[in-house]
Every structure is written in structure tokens, then in C-alpha cells.
Design a protein that fits this description.
By secondary structure, this protein is α+β, with helices and mostly antiparallel strands. Helices cover 47% and strands 15% of the residues.
Length: 279
């Protein structure tokens, strides 16, 4: 993360903390107000209706099945969300690092490989249809030996802190100007001109072999942003606060139901005996 990203992160964290505190106070006030209504008996009719409804529906197999499905769905979504967050962190940490034996996922942040520029006729002639669009999630593999790199391979290299993914369009073998290294000339498929500087093998980070998931990188980009981090914090707070709140409300309802259900119905006053009238 850059210094600007760190600044934005802490600014968002402060705002998020203040909003969370305000939301927590409001939630506590609402829960306390509802508990007062329950304890005062003002919700008795609603509690009886809810009790009868739950008693009737609890015996239906379909209701139990739907409950299990809903719980499983929430669990799967939550686990998937946190796994995605963990993967996005891994992608961010490994963003500009060299790929080793384990392939690494990267998010494409540029459109320089998205289409075929009309002047790049070699793309049609060589049937090179492996273009990469912005926000695609791709897999980079470990670089082969330098002598194994060939023309039209797609490689990633770092320049000024940015990871660039371009195609090799020419290889200049060692000569008098550079006797100790091969020069690789790279170009984006959607760009008319090749890069203005040659790339050395030691500057390359990995090679692309055609594995990509379209547009999934946009979600990863969001998860790597300060807003994504704050969403994770919000979900964690909700996962903790919701069960505690529901447990407290359920306990108060159960206690009140135990009183009003066991409470005997008030008997009607006996009618006064008729006093016989003497004729």
C-alpha cells in the first residue's frame, strides 16, 4: 500500500469507528426499549400470536428444511467472503514479487492487452487470441530459463513499482552494445507502438499461460481497498452483535411467555342470586 492508501485507510477507519459507535448506541437503545415493552406486557398479544404460529410451523418438515438451507447458505456465503478476502490479501502482498514454484494470481489493472490493435498484424497471422481484459484475474507461473523464452510469450515485469503484462514481440541477442544480456522488446496487444525500453530477464516476474477468470479481479480490487477492509470489520461486528442481541431478546420473550401462558384466565364474576319476590 502506498502512503496515500495508508492515509485513506486510517481516515476511513476513524469514520467507521465513529459510525460503529453511533450505531451501537442506537441499537442498545432500541433493544432496551423493546425489552421494556415486553416486560411491561404491552407485547403480550403479539407474543401469543408468534408463539402459536411457531408451534404450528415447527411441526412442518418443510419449515425445518428451509431453516437448514438458509443457515447453510449464510454459512457458505460468509466462508466464501472471508476466503476471498484472504486470497485478495495474498494477491496484494505478492503483487510485485517474483513468482516461484507456486503459481500466483494477479489482477489485471490495465487495458493494454484487452484488444488487438489493427496495426499489430502478427496477432492475426500467428492466431494469438489470448488477450486479457482489465480486472481479469489471471495466474502467473514461474519463468522458464531465459533461453526458453520465445517470441509472443506474455510476461510480467516491474517498472517504477508497477506490474506490467505485455507480449514479447522481439528478442535481441547479446551483441556489442549489450554483450552480457538478451534484450526483450515488449508490447501490449492493444497498443500501436512497442514499449520504449527493452526489458531484461532479471526484471521479469512471471509468465502468463492463458489461465484467467474474467472480471473477478474487480471484486479483489475492492477487497484490497480501504473500503473492503472496513466491510470485513463491519461483518465481524455484525457476526458478534447479532447473536448476542437475538439471545437477549429471546430470553426476555421466553420469560414473559412463561408468565402469560401459565396465567389462569380471569373468572367471570358470579351473578347475584335472584331474591324471590313474595306475592
Amino acid at each position: 500500500m502506498s502512503s496515500y492508501d495508508i492515509y485513506i485507510f486510517f481516515l476511513c477507519l476513524i469514520v467507521f469507528t465513529l459510525l460503529t459507535a453511533l450505531f451501537s448506541v442506537m441499537l442498545i437503545m432500541l433493544v432496551r426499549f423493546y425489552l421494556r415493552l415486553v416486560n411491561a406486557g404491552l407485547e403480550d398479544e403479539n407474543l401469543k400470536i408468534e408463539y402459536e404460529k411457531n408451534k404450528t410451523e415447527s411441526n412442518k418438515p418443510s419449515t425445518k428444511v428451509l431453516g437448514y438451507i438458509a443457515s447453510a447458505f449464510i454459512l457458505v456465503v460468509t466462508v466464501a467472503f472471508f476466503l476471498t478476502f484472504a486470497v485478495s490479501l495474498h494477491v496484494e502482498i505478492k503483487n510485485n514479487s517474483k513468482v516461484e514454484d507456486i503459481p500466483t494470481m494477479k489482477v489485471v489493472k490495465s487495458g493494454s492487452m484487452a484488444t488487438k490493435h489493427p496495426d499489430n498484424t502478427y496477432l492475426v497471422e500467428e492466431e494469438l487470441h489470448d488477450q486479457i481484459k482489465t480486472f481479469d484475474l489471471i495466474t502467473l507461473h514461474k519463468l522458464p530459463p531465459e533461453e526458453a523464452l520465445a517470441k509472443y510469450d506474455i510476461v510480467a515485469y516491474e517498472r517504477d513499482g508497477n506490474l506490467i503484462l505485455h507480449r514479447i514481440v522481439n528478442i535481441e541477442e547479446p551483441n556489442e552494445r549489450h554483450p552480457d544480456a538478451r534484450y526483450f522488446l515488449l508490447q501490449g496487444d492493444a497498443v500501436e507502438f512497442h514499449d520504449s525500453f527493452p526489458v531484461l530477464y532479471k526484471e521479469m516476474k512471471g509468465i502468463y499461460r492463458g489461465e484467467r477468470i474474467p472480471f473477478l479481479g474487480s471484486f479483489f480490487m475492492f477487497m484490497q481497498s480501504p473500503a473492503g477492509y472496513l466491510c470485513i470489520l463491519l461483518i465481524l461486528i455484525a457476526l458478534v452483535a447479532t447473536p448476542l442481541t437475538e439471545k437477549k431478546i429471546k430470553s426476555a420473550k421466553d420469560q414473559r411467555l412463561a408468565l402469560i401462558i401459565d396465567e389462569p384466565e380471569s373468572a367471570e364474576p358470579e351473578s347475584e342470586e335472584e331474591i324471590p319476590v313474595k306475592e
